[in-house]
Structure formats: structure tokens, C-alpha cells
Design goal:
Elements lengths: L4 H43 L21 H15 L5 H17 L6 H17 L18 H4 L4 H8 L7 H14 L1
């Protein structure tokens, strides 16, 4: 089965890990009220994104009732600017490496140079994510390297076997399965 960009990268790593790690970092470092103020500032920043092709503003900040994959992709474009200055540069750098490798994985056509760059960024990301364990960051991340983190390393092999994963997602086969069961 080919790699699943939506569930493994965008929802899995970005939403389920980075967003939680950043929130946990803010609470551990600044306390509940300090984190609340910083998160309000980040929300104001997200709501103030000017109208520009390819960018999406978030009028309610992070408070969506239902987040979709496109919302997370749009947030990935602007999150570094929103958190910069609120978190250490090491965290911003970790987030930047991760987002860059996501952009490579999302390309419609991926070259061998892209795959080499993906591997380099993956190594950089794995090294830099350890910042969440350091005392200066004051965060304890449980299961920093679960199997889903490990899965990032299989994207290159998957791309060699199945091609660019930009149009694949495990929900495609799930939807086809549901449709075929209904037809029976």
C-alpha cells in the first residue's frame, strides 16, 4: 500500500503531533494563563491573514468545529509565522524541516534529487524534534518516536514502488469499499 499523505503526514504528524507538542510546550513553559494569552495572539494572527491567492485566513483562529485536510494544508503554509517569537528558534526550525519534507511528498512529480532532499530533511527533522525533550523547552513528550513517526522513513520506498503519493489516501479505498458494500 502506498504512503498516505493526509493521514500519515498532514493529520498524523502535523495535527496530532506538532500542534499538540506546541500547545503542551506553551502550557509547560508559560503556565495556563500565559499559554492562553499566547494562543489568543496566535489565533489573532491566523485571523488577520490578508486576502492573497494561495493563502487562507482563519477567522476563528484554531477553533474549528470540523477541520479538513485542506484546512491543515493551509495552516501549514502560515504556522511558522504565527508561532515565531512565541517558541524557541529550535522548535521553529524543527517545524520548518518537517513542513519542507511534506511539500516534497506532496509534489505531483518527484525526482531522485527530491528524494535525496526528503531523506536529508527527514534526518534533520528527527534530530531537531529532540528539542521537545530538552530542559530548556521543558516538555515531556510521551512516545516521541511511535510507529507513525517511523513511517515517515518509508515514504521514499513507497514513492519508488508506487510513484508520487500526492493523490492517494487510505480513505479512497475505504470509500470505494463502502460504495461496493452498499451495492450488494
Amino acid at each position: 500500500m502506498s504512503s498516505d499523505i493526509l493521514h500519515q503526514l498532514i493529520k498524523g504528524r502535523f495535527k496530532d503531533h506538532f500542534i499538540k507538542w506546541l500547545t503542551q510546550y506553551l502550557h509547560k513553559t508559560f503556565g495556563k494563563s500565559g499559554a492562553h494569552e499566547i494562543l489568543k495572539d496566535i489565533d489573532r494572527w491566523l485571523a488577520a491573514i490578508p486576502s492573497f491567492p494561495g493563502l487562507q485566513s482563519f477567522p476563528d483562529g484554531r477553533d474549528f468545529s470540523q477541520w479538513m485536510g485542506d484546512d491543515f494544508k493551509a495552516l501549514m503554509k502560515i504556522i511558522i509565522c504565527a508561532v515565531n517569537g512565541h517558541v524557541p528558534l529550535k522548535i521553529v526550525s524543527c517545524l520548518s524541516a518537517f513542513i519542507e519534507l511534506c511539500y516534497i511528498a506532496r509534489k505531483n512529480m518527484i525526482t531522485s534529487v527530491d528524494l535525496q532532499q526528503y531523506d536529508s530533511l527527514l534526518i534533520e527533522y528527527h534530530e531537531k524534534r529532540l528539542v521537545f525533550l530538552k530542559k530548556e523547552v521543558q516538555i515531556v513528550v510521551k512516545k516521541l518516536s511511535p510507529s507513525c513517526q517511523h513511517a515517515l522513513g518509508h515514504f521514499v520506498e513507497s514513492i519508488h514502488n508506487f510513484g508520487a503519493p500526492n493523490s492517494t489516501c487510505s480513505s479512497i479505498t475505504e470509500n470505494k469499499h463502502i460504495e461496493s458494500v452498499k451495492e450488494l
